[in-house]
Fold CheR family methyltransferase.
Amino acid sequence: MKEQDHRDEELEKIEVSLLLEGIYQRYGYDFRNYSHPSIYRRIRHRLKLEGLAEISALQGSVLRDADAFRRLLSDLVIPVTELFRDPEMFLAFRRDVAPELRRLPYVRIWHAGCSTGEEVYSLAVLLHEEGLLDKARIYATDINEDALQRARDGMIPIDRMKQYTKNYLAAGGKRDFSSYYASNHGIVMLKPALREKIVFARHNLVTDSSFNEFHVVFCRNVMIYFNTQLTNQVHELFYESLAQGGFLILGGRESLSFTPLAERYETWNDAQRIYRKTM
Ligand SMILES: C[S@@+](CC[C@H](N)C(=O)[O-])C[C@H]1O[C@@H](n2cnc3c(N)ncnc32)[C@H](O)[C@@H]1O
């Protein structure tokens, strides 16, 4: 690498670290241990959109102007999700986890990093079909208030429904998927009955603590954006929050292997990243 490139990279590193420290001190959002490549990419993207040349200029504007911060925040949190995303995981949940939950008098579930709610509504449909929804309470949390508001609204653009119906069937769906929603003027409205057992609330995995004991914790496609130190910290939080015999379900590119708590879980379904707390 040329000496100048190396110097630019060093400078960028300092500027990013000052920006993230400033955000933490000013707004309480802690991105200091998010993984570097992704966070750098997003900051560079915001820099371009704001027409700024340097990260220090972005820092000045973000610290002084809450709207500028909100714009950057929307880049730093990635809300991508789908109804029945990774259908094989939902199929495995039906087959391998639902029978275990049937033995319990009630079931408490936490979706950490639920984004706009698609994963949560998918689970509500599945629990309904498996006769488990009535005894379930689902807590769905995210750092991003805008995403949570969309989740509460339960609306989906109609053009996504073809793909989602395919996902639902691949996830072992047992009904006509359209019985779960009404459509009007290009918007799909999920049936309000699906929401009755769901509580949507703000919770930051980095700075907030455990708030209940759960039989299942979903945290899918969230920790891919964290560095190892933060991932281990969040695994501590989930371990604390799970009942004995509770299930932890991660995203396809995430794993409990090689984390300090791995030996306290049994691998319930390796391919679908389903783990069970054993001690
Ligand atoms: C890619 S989405 C995943 C949504 C869903 N779990 C799925 O797999 O389809 C990642 C979500 O994690 C949330 N997130 C990021 N950092 C977080 C934090 N520190 N605490 C809580 N949620 C966070 C983001 O706001 C975003 O909604």
Notes: Residues 77-81, 85, 113-115, 119, 142-144, 147, 204-206, 220-222, 251 surround S-adenosylmethionine (CB under 6 Å). The beta strands are 107-112, 136-142, 155-157, 181-184, 187-190, 198-202, 214-219, 242-250, 265-269, 274-277.
